[in-house]
Amino acid sequence: MAVLLALLVLVGCTRSGGEPAPPAAAQPGPAVVETTGGAVRGVVAPGYRVFDGIPYAAAPMGPLRWAPPQPRAPWTGVRDATTPGLRCPQDVRNDPDYGRPTGEDCLNLNVWTPDGATPSHRLPVMVWIHGGGFLNGSADIYDARWLATQGNIVVVTVNYRLGTLGFLAHPALSPDGDVGNFGLADQQAALRWVRDNVAEFGGDPGKVTIAGESAGAMSVCDHLVAPESAGLFRAAILQSGPCQAQADRPTAQQVSMAYAAGVGCADPVTAAACLRGLPADRLLRPPLYVGFGPDKLTGPVTGTDRLPVDPMTAFALGRAPRVPVLIGSNGDEFAMFTAIKWLKERGLPPYPKLLSDTFGPDAAAVAQHYPLGLFDGNIGAAYSAAVTDGVFACPIDRASAGLAHTGPVYAYEFNDRTAPAPDVLREAPFPVGASHSLELRYLFDVGGAAPLNPAQRELSDQMIAYWSQFVRTGAPDAAEQPDWPRLGADAATGPRMSLQTGKLLLTNDFSARHQCPFWASRRGVR
Fold it and tell me: Can you tell me the mean pLDDT for 225-254?
């Protein structure tokens, strides 16, 4: 899924960030909070506080590059937490960061708290794991003031190692055999930091919900089955996560060894020292493990100590923890990626080639189920519908069904087909509709797109109410809004909440509408 690289720059702008100011003298007040690493000073704004760039682990540099995250040495005085920390190094060829600072000392997080959150009045916590294909993105994209103030919850957004530095699975880097997964280990370290520190910010460490979108949701899938994540959260939110796209250990190792050879570190005896001696800018082009057709991504590696089992397999076997889950996808997930491809190439290849490149031997069957005639001959619309269903909607449907056997599941589909999208996408000869990532604008003040109109602002308020109530109670039973029942034993027939402007609806035709019985028989989505 190389097109995921372009996602986050299209959906929003970030706040400025960089190296923190030197620690200053402590002064009492709501802007200063004491953590296990030392005191931090944040920003007090009307209705909320925000503490940016707080380290949760040591800089993973030198001998700590490609090592599990280690504790950060405590600091003296008060550390400035008024600007975001460094973004982790990432490949910006397809997702430019416009000069925003990056660096390996990037294991930091941001804490948003509403007025009234104090150590003696603790509120539930949502820990947000950003998306970006495990290749790009950062915590500072997600301005969480709406969730904090309207939802009355504490929100923590997390940076973690990406791409090569986060997921290279070379066996020489992990003599104990637990290859790759350094970025996943970072997320676990952040969750432990939340457990140990969030109470001082007014958060309840016993009421933590992990949440994420795209690669962030895939991370949540992994935490649901990862042994070291057990007990660090009590509920989970998964937004548009194709959790079937997980690399197995043999594939990741093979790709990683070839990658090391490509950067001049072919000798397995010296590979670890050679790789750790390279400058970070030599490692920005990531190893690509798994995906569909020509589009691949990096990410966590299954069959390892940290992630022994593929999450989709665990869900199907009923081996997920008994925690509440809120899960869903967007009605037109892949349309944005198709539009990006059209813009880059000023057109699309012939429909048969697109399908062959993407679905291989299943291409002819896909063409029969998604004939161009159903889409008025529009190649972009037909291709987007096929990949939306085969790669996003139906695998997420399978995950929902598996999770529903072990705990309460609340399923949704985001269906505002007029959702604000970057103007450049309007040039494509097909609508992007309710595409991948566009629901984020309704939960976070990500900016970078047209403002929400009054109907969309109402939908945003409804979504924030549902999400925050789920964080509080494990069920999206928001007052004065339509009831959102849990998914039943027969997940194929719903119910799912259709999040749309005008009137929220419960639907029971998700599986049929996205042709999930057809996709269940195809190799491309297994």
Answer: 96
What residues contact residue 40 under an 8 Å CB cut-off, 6+ apart? 32, 33, 51, 54, 78, 79, 80, 81
Write the CB contacts of 472 (distance below 8 Å, at least 6 apart in sequence): 124, 153, 207
Higher pLDDT: 445 or 16? It is: 445
Residue 287 in contact with residue 259, Cβ under 8 Å?
Answer: yes
Query: Contact 199/122 with Cβ under 8 angstroms?
Result: yes
Which tokens in the block code for residue 299? 């990410």
- Asked whether 355 and 441 are in contact (CB, 8 A), the reply is no
Cα(161)–Cα(215) distance, rounded to whole angstroms?
Answer: 13
* 485, 504 contact by CB (below 8 A): no
Selection from 227, 409, 211, 401 nearest residue 315 by Cα: 401
CA–chain centroid gap for 521, Å, is: 28
Per annotation, catalytic residue among 104, 170, 256, 333? 333
Nearest to 129 by CA among 258, 374, 334, 300: 300
Instruction: Decide: 430 and 524 in contact? Cβ < 8 Å.
Output: no
Supply 242's token pair. 């194709």
Catalytic entry in 130, 223, 436, 514: 436
For residue 319, how far is the Cα from the chain centroid? 22
Confirm whether 333 is a catalytic residue: yes
Write the pLDDT tens digit of every residue in 57-86. Answer: 999 999 999 999 999 999 999 999 999 999
Query: What is the edge-to-edge ordering of all strands in the sheet holding 78-80?
Result: 32-35, 38-41, 78-80
CA 49-51-52 angle, 5° bins: 140
9: Cβ–Cβ under 8 A, 6 or more apart, which residues? 95, 96, 97, 98, 136
If you ran DSSP here, which 8-state letter would residue 508 be given?
S
Return the pLDDT at 22: 46
What are the backbone dihedrals phi and psi of residue 66, each rounded to the nearest 5 degrees, phi first? 55, 45
Q: How many Å apart are CA 247 and CA 242, to the nearest integer?
A: 12
Q: Kindly provide the b/e burial profile for residues 237-259, where b requires at least 16 CB atoms within 10 angstroms of the residue's own CB.
A: bbbbbbbbbbbebeebbebbbeb
Selecting among 174, 214, 256, 468, the annotated active-site residue is 214
Question: Is residue 214 flagged as an active site residue?
Answer: yes
Beta carbons of 208 and 125 less than 8 angstroms apart: yes
The two structure tokens encoding residue 91: 């490949």
Q: Is 138 exposed, middle or buried (0-12, 13-18, 19+ CB in 10 A)?
A: buried
Would you call 356 a catalytic residue per the annotation? no
Rounded Cα distance, 464 and 328, in Å: 15
Measured distance between the N- and C-terminal CA atoms of the chain, rounded to whole angstroms? 16
Q: Which residue in 397, 412, 419, 356 sits closest to 511, CA to CA?
A: 397
Residue type, 277: G
Paired strand residues for 79: 40
Is 0.90 surpassed by the pTM of this model? yes
